[in-house]
Predict the structure of Alpha-1,4 glucan phosphorylase.
Amino acid sequence: MLIKKEDLKKDFKDNLITLYAEDVSEASLEHKYFALSEVIKKYMFENWMKTNRNYSKNEVRQVYYFSIEFLLGRILESNLINLGIRDLCKEALSEMGINLDELCVIEKDAGLGNGGLGRLAACFLDSMASLSIPGHGNGIRYRYGFFDQKIMDGYQIEIPDNWLKDGYVWEIRRNEKAVRVRFNGNVRMVNSNGRLRAIHENYETVLAVPYDIPIVGYDGSTVNTLRLWSAEPMEREFDFSSFSSGDYTKAVEYKYSVEAISQVLYPDDSSIQNKSLRLKQEYFFASAGIQSILRTYKKKGKPIEELYRYVAIHINDTHPSLVIPELMRILVDEENLTWEKAWDITTKVVSYTNHTIMSEALEKWPVSLMMSLLPRIYTIIEEINRRFYLEVKDKFNNNWDKINKVSIIQNGNIMMANLCVVGSRFVNGVSELHTEILKKQVLSDLYEIYPRKFKSVTNGITHRRWLLKINPELVELINDAIGSSWIKKPNSLIELKKYIKDKDFCHEIADVKLKNKIKLAKYIKEKNNIELNPKSIFDIQAKRFHAYKRQLLNIMHIMYLYNKLKENPNTDIIPRTFIFSGKAAPGYKLAKEIIKLINCVADKVNNDNSVNDVLKVVFLENYNVSLAEMIIPCAEVSEQISTASKEASGTSNMKFMMNGAITIGTLDGANVEIKEAVGDDNIVIFGLKAYEVLNYYKNGGYSAMEIYNNDMRIHQILDQLVNGFWCVKESGFIDIHEHLLKYNDEFFVLKDFDEYVKAQEKISRLYQDKIKWNEMSINNIANSGRFSSDNSIKKYAENIWNV
Ligand code: 26V
């Protein structure tokens, strides 16, 4: 579709009139944002309709990506980029005296995700559409997204994210496509014509209403759909006339209990487990999604037995795992297929990605809860488990230890990862290392049963957002050097290697970085009132706060530097700005205490004139997609310092390298592959290896106390945690102290400290050689194409979905 500037201007002005009865001079930025978005929507909708018609007419296999999180961020500018009209639009608006950037920031982030997992889902949608793969998202339309974080007196405060307050332009409510989802009640088995039949009675019905968001691919031709479900009461059940019969409060209670299902995104923390509302959410979108897929499929007029030819369902972690018994339920109870046939279809259609090896994060649900909330689904899981048991008991020679480990139901709990492996065609980890750990440890017995199910697909990020959109000046440099073919073929970024020894190019790269840093320094001055030296090294750790990600190691290194400078003011230090950003789960005490510690250290360091020429510490509140877009282009050092084996992949590591930062990291997750890609000289690696960590967990032999007693730097830092050194008023950082000493430092912070300090010294040394540093930076950018999510999606398409 060819869009002309004059048409765009006219459409925009028309919209201002029809929406707000205003002209350009009268409209507020908000109104202009909405008017523009409506124009862009119209441009997308034509191809959306075409894409949908094409999908329903032609016999193409559709992929449905089920995820309880989609962390989209803002999408106006991405849509403009993918439609190929960002510059045109900028120009058109500027001719009317409007700055596009000012409109883009009006959009509220769609923060329907916690972090990496949700953002991955969003990047994958972008890649599927850009590669013209018929791939759609299926999730929940949360009324409140991930909380907004405020820092008050150094502490994290959570504020509800009312992102829908002013309406969301990119969605369409589709009343006519609503489906019903049933909860509670009881199940009775009856014999009908020689077949056992399940009758589900006395259930409560919830209406699932879909909201569709168009996902436009790069070049605009393919427009896929993200379908998010909202939970609403059935009108019949929520009948105000019952007021007269005295049931008014009951009716209101019903309404609220139903709406609660899609009310709020759970901020992941250890307390999710056993939350019945969470289980309701999981079944709600799994069931609604499956019903909607089957309805679409049946319109094609194909026999249900052939479903697997036309449909691939992917489950992003175990949260959508009830897809498996739900599909079984419909095939057996409603389509009247035999169990065997239904199971054959289900296990050909579904595939599963695991995203963590942390045992606390592996989902399990009490049998009692499942039985009462989803009685029919429970009986199906029980039957899957029974048949699976018959299959493995011979294979494992009645080895009960092993049989129990693979069992779907264990000690009164349903183990969702086991259900997923048994019920899926393929299972994959999200980096090579992570997949190896799944095979050898976490899911080793299941791997023994199904070796061919296991695959590895390393995560990726969409370079269209994480480079093209967020770092325009770097993009201009790249395009001048190697042309713009990398936008369609991200691996072509490798051509930049030719420029590594090009002095001019090196200088230009450094200039762009400096410009970006100056912009960020200005923002930080306004936001935090901290003055930064843009020539200092910008060293950034931006991600969720989790003990295993070890923000603590980072801040302890800063505490050590401070102590060293105080002891010897002549210590030669290359000026550094340490920037932290990220949210802790509201119930995660330790993580919140680490945030407080960072803010206390920042306060003291930044206000101490004897050190603040060389050392600055900043905590940027409310890390979200938009903030990530702002800070990532400014990083020179990317902190990827998780305890080896714990970070399944990581994706910010990829975003930072793509924008020219050098990684300081452990050999964990995708860092291993980043090291392979850039070579040992272009990354700084330190710390325990995954097998060493796993070995300590298995066999013991680590004593944090011993390190505390022998390393005086650590001794001093730990003592300062509890003697009021950093925050005089506070009672001290007792939880952190105990975590490290009393509970023996579960994530090996003390163990890796010495190597981390040395790695940081190496970073400083490297930075002094500006030429070398810029070469490293170019090398990182050049090798980052491999981590485009286009590559991940191609692998899924070929090896897993068969599309
Ligand atoms: C959740 C929890 C909750 C309880 C406390 C411990 C804990 C640890 C981890 C998690 C995360 C669960 C799933 C998840 O978000 N995994 C992330 O997925 C990303 C995309 O694949 C990947 O890059 C991250 O490494 C991985 O942590």
